[in-house]
Amino acid sequence: MKAVVMTAAGEPEVLQLQSVPQPQIQIETQMLVQLRAAGVNPIDTKVRQRGTFYPDQEPAILGCDGAGVVAEVGSAVQNFQVGDEVYFFNGGLGGPTGNYAEYAVVDARFAAKKPRSLSFAEAAAAPLVLITAWESLYDRGRLQAGQTTLVHAGAGGVGHVAVQLAKLQGASVATTVGTQEKADFIQSLGADLPILYKEKDFVEAVLAWTQQEGVDLAFDTVGGKVLEQSFPAVKVYGDVVTLLEPAADTSWKVARKRNQRLSLELMLTPMTLDSATLRQDQTKILNQCARLIDAGKLKICLNHTFPLEQASQAHRLLGQGSMLGKIALEIGQSAG
C-alpha cells in the first residue's frame, strides 16, 4: 500500500510517500480499515520535529486521526461489519501504525461509526479535537449550565469545538481571536464575546463582561504566558484547564491568592498508557459527538485538505500557526 513515511526527525521534507506492506489483523478484536482521510494535528508536527514516542520502531507512519471504510473484521468484532464507515483516534505516535496511509488496523473497541452528515475528510479532522475539548470542559473543568468560560484561540481546531460544547452545556462563552474574520466565524458558532486580543486586553474585557468577578473556567489551548495571564480573568475558586505543560517560570501567585484549581489535559494519555478501559471512554465521547453532529448541534470546520502525497505541505501550513479550523489529508476515494 501507499503511505507517507517519516524517514527521520526533521522538517516537513522528511515525510515521504512510499510503498509499504499492508497491515494485517493480529488479534480477534481488530479490524482493517481502508482509509479515506487522515487528520493533521499539532501532535503530528511535534513528533515529526522531535522524534517519535517509539524510536526503535522507525520508520514511522504518522497521523492519529483517521476515517474510512471497514474492509475486514476480526472474529470477535461484533459492532462493525465490512462496509461500515468509521472514524477514530489511533496510532500515529511512532512505528508502522498511523493513518497517513491507505490502510490501518484499529481495535474495534476504539472506533466509532462515522457521523453520517460528514465527509470522510471532515470526520478524520474530528476525533482529537472532539475528545480534547470534551475532556477539558466537561471532565477536567466540570463546566455547568449557567457558568461562564473563556476559551483561548476559539477559532482554532480545539477552540472552535470547545466553544460549541460550552454552549451546548448552557454556558456563556468569551473567546480570544486574532482577526475580525475569526471573530465573525466563532460568533456564528455561538460565542457570546469574541475578544480581538491584539487590540484589547482580554483580562479587562472578561472582567467587564463578568461584572469584575472573572469566569468560572478558563481553557488555555495556547500555552506559554497565556496560562499565567489568564489567572486574573478567572474568579475566586474558579477553574483553569491547560493543554500545555506550564512553563518553569510560571508565577502561581495570582492563582494561589484566588484559590483556583488547575487541571492538565492530555488526551494522548489513554493511548500512551495502553489502557483499553480509558480508550473506550474516549470512544464513548466520539459516539456522543457523532449524534450531536448528525443532529446539527455540533460542527467541524475543515479549512484545508491535501492529497496524501502532499502531507509535507499540510505540515508546513499547520506550522505557520493561526489556523482557522482543521486540516486533513484525502486518501483515494475520500469525497464521500
Descriptive overview:
The protein is of the alpha/beta class and about 325 residues long. The protein folds into 2 domains: about 1-125 and about 290-330, Medium-chain alcohol dehydrogenases, catalytic domain (Quinone Oxidoreductase, Chain A, domain 1), CATH 3.90.180; about 130-265, Rossmann fold (3-Layer(aba) Sandwich). Helix content is about 30%, strand content about 25%. The protein contains 11 helices and 16 strands. It has helices at about 40-50, 120-125, 125-140, 155-170, 180-190, 200-210, 225-230, 255, 270, 275-295, 310-320; strands spanning about 1-5, 15-20, 30-40, 60, 65-75, 85-90, 105, 110-115, 150, 170-175, 195, 215-220, 235-240, 260-265, 300-305, 325-330. The strands form 3 sheets. Strands 3, 5, 6, 7, 8, 15 and 16 form a 7-stranded mixed beta sheet that branches. A 6-stranded parallel beta sheet has the order 11-10-9-12-13-14, sandwiched between helices. It has a 3-stranded antiparallel beta sheet with strand order 2-1-4, with no helix packed on it. The longest helix has 19 residues, at about 275-295.
